[in-house]
Write a structure and sequence with these properties.
This protein is α/β, with parallel strands linked by helices. It contains twelve helices and 15 strands. The protein folds into two domains: 244 residues, TIM Barrel, CATH 3.20.20; 90 residues, Sulfite Reductase Hemoprotein, domain 1, CATH 3.30.413.
């Protein structure tokens, strides 16, 4: 069943578009020193290979800002500059040709400074992402909410930044409201979705390690996407940014919002299992990770859960007692020895 997505205004980020009927895009953030152009470009190329469609880099100082143009010239996906507090870094990033900046206008000083950033963004036709995290809410807003970081406080903070930009006739805006708490994150985005039509960038901030962060991100981001909320996503993991991209794509694929690469189906083991299923499934997962064509692969533990329950899979394997079966769309193709099952599966996948 298709998910009815919330209608938002369209915002262009380089050659990409988010909002409207455009697909939900995957982004990540480099963990390299932005001043190290070679390392940053290398990581961006790796991220793109795994499906990253936009990439953000930290701009900590003027030296980093001045390297953005060189980075931009050597990559093929939109480049986003992540800036805090310093409007001059924002101006330099825009001058260097980035495709979007992430900065909260209420935190960069006087109206004159904000106007300079907005005017520069207008000239270059680049959007601004307002990024409110649970730890960055203004003290005056927290005081109104009894010093509690509530979803309402997060939304109010974001709206205060939005108003600054709107008062300057700037509306190429993207908004994020991230917390480490999943329920708070979901509630904040739900509130914002009712108040504005700007595209929303989804994420659960500081989600944790690969295993823990994957679960939290899947629940938080997945819940919102399932409600039709969200136009671009970033999974935040204490791990390689490549793992962030992999998890993001699995969320989108499992919700039927995007198609890319293989979808793996594998059954839990039980008393009927007479094949060494767990290591086999892991080997299939690793061996097929490079596949970019949308294809569903099933790794099943017995004839009960084999061709029957996995009949929608493009290709699958099952077996027991030293033999294995290869099946396509629920129909058995051939029987092979168990020790050759992985190799024979890969041969059939190559044919597809």
């Amino acid at each position: 069943m298709d998910i009815a997505r919330r209608k938002t205004r369209v915002v262009s980020i380089g050659q990409k578009k988010i909002g409207g009927d455009n697909p939900v895009l995957v982004q990540s953030m480099c963990n390299t020193d932005t001043k190290d152009v070679s390392a940053t470009v290398k990581q961006i190329h790796e991220l793109q290979k795994h499906g990253c469609e936009m990439v953000r880099v930290a701009v900590l100082n003027a030296s980093a800002a001045k390297k953005l143009g060189e980075i931009k010239r050597r990559i093929q996906i939109p480049l986003i500059a992540d800036i805090h507090f310093d409007y001059q870094l924002a101006l330099e990033a825009i001058e260097q040709g980035v495709d979007k900046i992430r900065i909260n206008p209420g935190n960069i000083g006087s109206e004159e400074k904000v106007r300079k950033v907005v005017d520069a963004a207008k000239r270059r036709r680049i959007p601004i992402r307002i990024g409110v995290n649970s730890g960055s809410i203004e003290k005056r807003i927290l005081a109104k909410h009894r010093d509690e970081v509530t979803p309402a406080a997060m939304a109010e903070s974001a709206l205060s930044h939005v108003k600054i930009l709107e008062d300057l006739q700037f509306r190429d805006i993207v908004i994020s409201l991230k917390a480490a708490d999943v329920n708070r994150t979901i509630a904040a985005y739900q509130l914002m979705a009712k108040k504005v039509d700007y595209p929303l960038h989804l994420g659960v901030t500081e989600a944790g390690t690969k295993w823990l962060g994957t679960i939290k991100s899947a629940i938080g981001i997945g819940s919102l996407l399932n409600q039709g909320i969200g136009d671009t996503i970033r999974v935040s993991l204490t791990d390689s940014p490549i793992e962030e991209v992999k998890v993001a794509w699995e969320i989108l694929k499992d919700l039927g919002l995007r198609k890319r690469g293989r979808m793996l189906i594998s059954c839990p083991t039980c008393g009927r299992t007479q094949i060494d299923l767990i290591p086999l499934a892991k080997k299939v997962e690793e061996a097929t990770a490079h596949i970019e064509k949308p294809i569903t692969i099933a790794v099943m533990g017995c004839v009960v859960n084999g061709p029957g329950e996995a009949k929608e899979a493009d290709i699958g394997i099952t077996g027991g007692k030293g033999v294995g079966m290869i099946f396509k769309k629920g129909k058995v193709e051939r029987v092979v020895r168990e020790d050759t099952l992985l190799d024979e599966l890969m041969k059939e996948i190559d044919k597809l």
